[in-house]
Each structure stands twice: as structure tokens, then as C-alpha cells.
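Support request from a user on the community tier.

User writes: "When I paste my C-alpha cells into the form, the page sometimes reloads and wipes my input. The last time it worked, I copied everything first. Here is what I submitted, just in case something in the input itself triggers the reload:"
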């Protein structure tokens, strides 16, 4: 009896998870790094669920993206995932408006892929800067993927 209920719960979870991820992917856009986004004043705009795809072209390259929260977003949780190329470590910073610091919770400590969450304010611009770690090499041809979501 317990085994049967557990199987149903697992199956329902798998189906629900599949629906959530496939529906988000259907509406997500891929934002390609233009190369002209080296400062948060010229950052590329993203929407929730978009996936930014970029390259760190030099040791000093920084790529900036931003998302603008809406009037009903205050108090919600945003998560941002940075998927790094294999064997390279890129990091990102999160700030708001004109570079005000944002306190984030690291959801994947000690791993190459960075995944953070934070509570957002309504009608606020959040900036995401991606750059290579000072302790790691880089490959100018390796792609990274950055994706913000709100819950």
C-alpha cells in the first residue's frame, strides 16, 4: 500500500516537473551576447525565463544583462542560474539600479555552476554581470548560459 502511494507521488512529481520545465522552455527566448554589454549601463535586457548565451572573450571581458521587475513583483523570489563551460569557472554579480549591492543566497556552494536567489523589489532594475574567476583560466570559445526566473 505504502509502495503504491509512493510510486504515485513520484510519478505525479515527474509529470508535473516535466510540464513546468517544458512550458517554460516554450516561452523562453535565447539572448545572444552582443559583445557591446561590458558595463551595466549598456547591459542587454532579459525577461523572466530567458536564457543568455555568451562568451568571455578575454581575461578582462565582462558581460552585463538586466531584468526590470514589475509593479506586482515586490517580495517575490528571483533565482539566477549561471551554467559554466566545462573546466572553467565564471562568476556573476547581482546589483540593482546604479550598482547598489544585492544580498543573495548561494544555492549551489562550492560548485562551478552558480545558482543564487534573492527577494526582489517592485519596479527595480536588477543587473547581472558575468566574468571569469580570478583563480581560473578561460576559453574565449566556451559558452556560458545565464537564466533568471521569478517565483
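"...and here is what came back when it finally went through:"
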Amino acid at each position: 500500500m505504502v509502495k503504491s502511494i509512493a510510486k504515485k507521488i513520484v510519478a505525479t512529481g515527474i509529470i508535473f516537473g516535466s510540464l513546468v520545465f517544458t512550458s517554460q522552455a516554450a516561452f523562453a527566448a535565447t539572448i545572444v551576447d552582443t559583445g557591446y554589454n561590458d558595463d551595466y549601463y549598456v547591459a542587454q535586457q532579459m525577461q523572466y525565463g530567458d536564457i543568455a548565451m555568451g562568451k568571455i572573450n578575454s581575461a578582462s571581458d565582462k558581460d552585463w544583462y538586466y531584468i526590470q521587475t514589475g509593479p506586482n513583483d515586490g517580495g517575490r523570489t528571483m533565482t539566477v542560474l549561471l551554467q559554466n563551460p566545462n573546466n572553467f569557472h565564471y562568476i556573476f554579480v547581482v546589483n540593482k539600479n546604479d550598482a547598489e549591492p544585492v544580498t543573495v543566497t548561494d544555492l549551489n556552494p562550492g560548485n562551478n555552476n552558480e545558482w543564487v536567489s534573492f527577494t526582489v523589489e517592485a519596479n527595480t532594475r536588477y543587473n547581472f554581470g558575468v566574468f571569469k574567476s580570478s583563480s581560473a583560466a578561460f576559453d574565449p570559445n566556451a559558452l556560458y548560459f545565464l537564466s533568471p526566473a521569478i517565483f
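Agent notes: The reload is a front-end session timeout and is unrelated to the input. The helical segments are 2-27. The CA atoms of residues 36 and 77 lie 29 Å apart. Escalated to web team.
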